[in-house]
Amino acid sequence: MWHKAAQLHPMARLTLLILMAALVLLPWADLNLYQVEPGAELGRMMQGLVSPSLSEIDTLTHASLITVAFALIGVGIAALLGMPLALLFHFRVIRGLCAFIRAIHELFWALIFMQVFGLSAITGLLAITLPYACTFAKVYAEILEGIDNQTPLPSGTDKISRWCYSTIPAAWSALVAYTRYRFECALRSSAILGFIGLPTLGFHLDTAFAQGVYDQAATILLLFFALIATLRFWLKPALVPVYLVVCLWALPETPPVYGSYFWQFFTQDIWPKALLLGDWIGALNWYANQLVSVAMPAVGQTLVLTQLSLAATCLLTVALAWLGSRQFGNPISQTLGHGILLALRSTPEMILAFVFLLLFGPSMLPAILALALHNSGLISYLGSRITDHVKLRQDAPKGIDRYSYEILPRIYPQLMTFLLYRWEVIMRESAILGILGITTLGFYIDSAFEDIRFDRAALLIVISALLNVLVDSLARRLRRRAGLRELRMG
Amino acid sequence: MAQPSLTLSGESLSYEGEQVLAPVTLSIPPGEHVALVGRSGAGKSSLLKLLYQQAPEHIALCPQSYGLVGNLSVYQNVYMGQLNRHNPLYNLCNLVRPWRRHKAAVQQLCDTLGLDEKINSPVDTLSGGQQQRTAIARALYQQAGIFLGDEPVSAVDPLQAKLLIELIQHQHASSVIALHNRQLALTCFDRIVGLQHGKVVFDLPSSSLTAEQLDQLYVA
């Protein structure tokens, strides 16, 4: 059997590996349906979806503005910080620090800053700015490194002048394009911040769903889709300064913060008492105890959710990757396919998971569905753009045969590359979905904050970050072993 | 399956508003093997394209860029010649696990073409000549009446090219093959169509042509 496995195509081997891992972990996953009649609830949701309510449009417009404000100002500051960091990215310390900060989800950052700054503008901005600045640092550094046709400058020109006059201008369009793409991501992050109480669209969505006011929820979702779908019409470079002024004005107020409390939080609150007292044995005991009783089960469940979602995303991508491609169907079905993929990839996992939780109850199933739908929507969209450029022979088969024999084998390596890039994202989201009540890391972190056990929260957040760094390096190794190209994808 | 003859009566071909093939009148009855000769860009591929459109269901096509799927094995690529004979479910099953009877048939074909050891290898690990033989195997496996090939033997040595052409002609009632090898055109084909600048300049039995006449096509 091993001899046979060695003969398998690297792509088939990679796929089998992903599916087998999920199969092995399956016994530890709670996939029960708790809601007795998901059909009835779904019916009410659908009814709400087709009759969006305009009764609170003023509040929602304001919430949309705050959502944009967090994203725009957050990305703005992050880009300003990211550039100098990118220039220092060859230092190992900077690289490691950025990888670590980036590995902590925006929502976890928000939970941390909320303890110090409360539900204020600065919490929202910091939660977006910190991880985004570190992502910018990494990707900007990659972009700048990839620039080879530089303007010749007099020899002996100093490094900073060289960057300003030659490297950065040459890379400018790539830098702007990536920053733009991240702004779209930041809009989603910003909306999601509402789930922990900040006044963005997510807050109103959370409330509307929780109270079963589905017509209201529909309005919010449509507003959110409209914001993202019309991005290319309203996000003009010349208008950004105007938007920034409006956004600054729209930000919620930040209550005064006492520097001493900020200091106390990071030097005392997040460390176990034994450690602060200098009781090393006690501290070690505490850490060991937390690792065994809380961290291990939390990490276990996070891994189970991650791997099952990864496998589900893989299968669903294979099922969906023909949607919206010009190689199949007619213009009407292609537009419809594009619409479905757009809806899947622009709805944040958190919102999808929230809806599915209402339908199926608090098992792992809603989270897997949400992660698989969102990610396969994104990967299929990227895949369909490659599919459009595949040149087929004159006598190529049609329909399912065309997809399975001509298209899929050709685009599969790219799909797998995207999937492995999403692995880290899926892991981060698996952890964060715990906030909705699934027993992954996010659940334990959220509860620790609620119980004012900041020492435990800090430990778990660090563990979630390390887990991410680990998966990231594992994915890179797998990509290399399967002979897949490195891509740039944030 | 009754064998139609391929007939063109004044059809032409344009690409992005520019005529790449002047109106052609041509008939290829069953039983006749025709060579298309001319420089690159003379219109051979365009003429084959037009011919294919006349009777797609009777034709096994062997396009110039081989039209193979690099990540699939030689077996799967050859099997693709019969995709239209089975339902999609049957084909999907074959993709996961090859059907035994097809595997045996393809193995036999691969033995004939000297691909026997490569049947499970992905096509993009093969040499140019092996890929070309895979493309021919796919066309043969289609078991159609007419073979249309666009330089199907350009990447193999002359001796092998001759054997392959003979095999193709033996398996098909009629064939139209574009090629550069003038000697092969004269010895293996009943009839030769010469093309120049997107026009048919002659259409004669090969017995009435000489190598010098064919060489004329390659002079500017």
From TrEMBL, chain A:
> What subcellular locations does the record give?
Cell membrane
Keywords recorded for this protein, A-Z? Cell membrane, Membrane, Transmembrane, Transmembrane helix, Transport
**Which coarse location class describes where this protein primarily resides?**
membrane
Cell membrane as a keyword? yes
* Name this protein carries in UniProt: PhnE/PtxC family ABC transporter permease
At the top level of its lineage, which domain of life is listed? Bacteria
Instruction: List the InterPro entries.
Output: MetI-like_sf
Species:
Corallincola platygyrae
Record membrane topology: Multi-pass membrane protein
Q: Where are the transmembrane segments?
A: 63-87, 107-130, 217-235, 242-264, 300-323, 351-373, 425-445, 457-475
From TrEMBL, chain B:
- Give every ABC transporter domain span: 6-214
Q: How does it sit in the membrane?
A: Peripheral membrane protein
Main localization of the protein described in the UniProt heading: membrane
Annotated GO molecular function terms are: ATP binding
What UniProt keywords apply to this chain's record, in alphabetical order? ATP-binding, Cell membrane, Membrane, Nucleotide-binding, Translocase, Transport
Is the keyword Metal-binding assigned to this protein?
no
Q: Does the keyword Nucleotide-binding apply?
A: yes
> Where in the cell?
Cell inner membrane
Superkingdom in the source lineage: Bacteria
Checking InterPro entries in the record gives: AAA+_ATPase (IPR003593), ABC_transporter-like_ATP-bd (IPR003439), MetN_ABC_transporter-like (IPR050086), P-loop_NTPase (IPR027417)
List the protein's name: Phosphonate ABC transporter ATP-binding protein
